[in-house]
Design goal:
The structure is a homodimer of 298-residue chains. With 298 residues, the first copy, chain A, is α+β, with helices and mostly antiparallel strands. Chain A is built from 7 helices and 13 strands. The first copy, chain A, has a 7-stranded mixed beta sheet. The first copy, chain A, has a 6-stranded mixed beta sheet with strand order 1-2-3-6-4-5. The two termini of chain A are 13 Å apart. The mean pLDDT of chain A is 95. The interface between A and B is large, with 74 and 74 residues.
Amino acid sequence: MKISRIGEFGLIERFRKSISLDASVIKGSGDDCAVLKFDKNNYQLFTCDMLVEGVDFRPGTDPYLIGRKALAVSLSDIAACAGLPRYCLVSMALPKGISVERVDRLSQGIFDLAKAHKLNIVGGDLSRASRLSIDISILGSVEKKRLALRSGAKKKDIIFTSGPLGGSLRGRHLKFTPRLKEARFLAKNFKINSMIDISDGLAQDLGHILKESSAGAVIYERLIPLNKEARGLSDALYTGEDFELLFTLSRQEAKKLLNRRGNNFPPIGEIVEKKYGLRLVDKKGREKVILPRGFRHF
Amino acid sequence: MKISRIGEFGLIERFRKSISLDASVIKGSGDDCAVLKFDKNNYQLFTCDMLVEGVDFRPGTDPYLIGRKALAVSLSDIAACAGLPRYCLVSMALPKGISVERVDRLSQGIFDLAKAHKLNIVGGDLSRASRLSIDISILGSVEKKRLALRSGAKKKDIIFTSGPLGGSLRGRHLKFTPRLKEARFLAKNFKINSMIDISDGLAQDLGHILKESSAGAVIYERLIPLNKEARGLSDALYTGEDFELLFTLSRQEAKKLLNRRGNNFPPIGEIVEKKYGLRLVDKKGREKVILPRGFRHF
């Protein structure tokens, strides 16, 4: 049986069923980061992301942007849990004939973004491959009371994003700013019920929140903010790589956020009972069920 | 300039110079694991290793053994620091057409070895690639007083290994047992001055200890234990992938170890002043300087 038959998430489900975890693991596979016991007030966050040439970036891409993106996608996972990144390891498989200058630019893209977030690059591994790939794992931390997971969305929660969606594949996916600052602002000032970063598209990533929270959602086309590069709503729903935050707040917390002067977090819908699934209300007020599909590797 | 001009370790040196670390990093890049502050009595260990098809295993290799090896090499890094593995993340890039059965065997190889060491697999990432690759990062811990690094070798230390060397590439590299149990035994019962795992060959890995400890060494051909698969001393010195421990103890500690009934750690030489470099005394008593060369990716 080919893996395309069960797909990326089918594979992950299969893995999850085979794994046993001890009591120090607060949350294993299935969220943006693993959450581990740490000290009285804090958890540790542990996450990794792998980028492969030809899948996550085109062969001709500026190596500086490749390095930058490789780190940014992992930082975005830490942001999705409302954490702070602390340490990272960088594994790179480099083509044998690559020039030192290209490797320098690649690593400069990593170093500059790491520095901006006070992230310690504490090691890594070098290997050889026909195509360039980079895997970065990050260890971070979050106050217990501020941890945000996919699983806490509640009926009547308001759903927000941290910015406009869609069209990222036209170039923004190489230059996006991981929303660490925004996530920390939210976690310090509000009780976040659930959060994820939009890596695979709004529909699929909201679908993750709904699945983990046993909930449904209604989102409104007229409220979904589109990027100027987006060709339409379907770009926002299905193409992914936006790396904006998607989160839910209770009505009371949502009011607090919406009443702040200059609020930059647009509301796009609300959480409903699970039986309604994921619904979109279009600009003419027509409601339809949409599928939580989006980018998949297989 | 091609990277083969400066080589794998030249590249790593280049990276190390560009990186700044905060005070919570006890040891960054340049040892088997990064060492991070944790609590009063313990450090955290953080390490990763990437395996690539065609470099670290042949395309036809049983996927179970590939998965097993991918985890074993990272566990060996934790052993080299005398630590305990706790959590790991698994990133895999899979060829699009791979079967579910092969992925199941691959992950079973990881799961079985993880279980044997009570290691929690807490997440990972899946991607696509033309060739299979796996990168596993491990988070572990070690008591402050038991931490072993490459940098502590002292003049007159006795150099030991944990077992016979050479010939690993004939098959053992896919089935070796990471020396966690042995490392813990040593750390609990002796003061280890320096330690590393032999991944690139005795000459190169002893070279790492000497460089980090600003020391020299004399090793004796007649004392170096050879595996039955080894074709000769040069296999032990230069081919690598043995994943045995290489460590040094003061004379007093060495005596304690050598006097234990059934001691399984053969002594192979001693630490001398840096100016002597790395020297081998052959079976006829002739001494020669050897170069710390071994496996290199570039």
